[in-house]
Design brief:
- This protein has 15 helices and five strands.
- By secondary structure, the chain is α+β, with helices and mostly antiparallel strands.
- It has two domains: 193 residues, Alpha-Beta Plaits, CATH 3.30.70; 94 residues, Chromosomal Replication Initiator Protein Dnaa, Chain: A (Orthogonal Bundle).
- A five-stranded mixed β-sheet has the order 2-3-1-4-5, sandwiched between helices.
- A hairpin with a 2-residue loop joins strand 2 and strand 3.
- The chain starts with 11 loop residues before the first strand and ends in a 5-residue tail after the last helix.
- About 2% of the residues have low confidence.
Length: 314
């Protein structure tokens, strides 16, 4: 298939890859790496097992106790805001459209960590993985503590605690044949999952999609009207300006602000806003992300409060 499906399920292990955008490197200094690690440690819904950071991509191995979609994007947005505040640069540093989440079956966690720690070697940055400083390798050999939970994978490598570090060093130094491509792309024909088909079948049997509602479009239309009514009250702009048909010098991105309110605050789907604004979904998603970067928090909070408190439009 041309495009595989990334599984978004709670209580599963994931190999996460987030590349940088064309604007520049993800990390402006080693302090930026420390800040990202501190953000990850604050996420209550995850347990971090490993990481490897490059200027153009971050790699994470973790257990997500909640849906990855619930915490990953807010965490990246918070890092991006800090990056802007400290570096003075504008724009979004991550390429969200090419973020990849590969579900990892627990018994393959060791192979996934081996692949991650040896990325500097396979990318010809260094000759051995212990020469690269920006990974969780040194957590596993006891030379640093960046909040990584090493116990699950160490126990997979050896049942005897006294032999684990020696076993880990040997394991990381031993080439793993025919695994790199599978972990990068997922070895299942349809899903981005490094797992056996029987394992995928078992976890997918617990997936409970939201019940389909025949009047879902009617509901979205009502939410869209509420958002439009709210912005009219806050900005005092006409409908044509809020819908992007015309522009106003005081708020030229009013239509993107409407899309932000509908998608991020009211929980509406991007496709619905895309249809009414006549803008493709990818562009609209990027514009929605940039709203928080271009408007004061107090202004956005006032709009949010108005949406939550305003009466229904007539």
């Amino acid at each position: 298939m041309d495009k595989k499906i990334s599984l978004d399920m709670a209580n599963q292990h994931y190999y996460v890859q987030v590349p940088c955008s064309a604007r520049g490197p993800i990390f402006s200094s080693v302090f930026a790496i420390d800040y990202l690690l501190s953000l990850l440690q604050k996420q209550s819904g995850i347990e971090l097992y490993g990481y490897c950071f490059f200027p153009d991509k971050i790699h994470l191995l973790l257990l997500s106790e909640t849906l990855p979609s619930n915490w990953l994007e807010p965490c990246l947005v918070q890092y991006n805001q800090w990056h802007q505040d400290t570096s003075g640069e504008s724009g979004y540093v991550f390429d969200d459209e090419n973020t990849q989440l590969t579900l990892i079956q627990p018994k393959y966690l060791g192979k996934a960590l081996h692949h991650m720690h040896n990325l500097p070697v396979s990318n010809k940055i260094c000759s051995t993985c212990d020469q690269y400083l920006y990974s969780s390798y040194f957590d596993y050999i006891g030379q640093q503590n960046t909040g990584i939970n090493i116990e699950p994978i160490m126990s997979l490598l050896s049942p005897h605690s006294g032999q684990r570090i020696r076993r880990f060093l040997d394991y990381m130094a031993t080439p793993q044949q025919n695994h790199t491509l599978n972990i990068e792309q997922g070895n299942h024909d349809f899903y981005l999952a490094y797992a056996d088909s029987s394992y995928l079948t078992r976890i997918m049997s617990h997936y409970q999609p939201s019940p389909y509602s025949q009047d879902i479009e009617v509901h979205f239309a009502e939410v869209w009207r509420n958002c439009l009514f709210t912005l009219q009250g806050v900005t005092h702009l006409e409908n044509n300006t809020l819908l992007g048909i015309s522009r106003h010098h005081s708020l030229p991105d009013a239509h993107f602000l409407l899309a932000w309110l509908f998608v991020e605050v009211a929980g509406g789907p991007v496709y619905y806003a895309s249809k009414f604004l006549s803008i493709d979904e990818i562009t609209l998603q990027l514009k929605i992300k940039s709203i928080a970067l271009h408007h004061p928090k107090s202004f956005l909070s006032r709009i949010t409060s108005s949406l939550n408190n305003t009466p229904e439009p007539a």
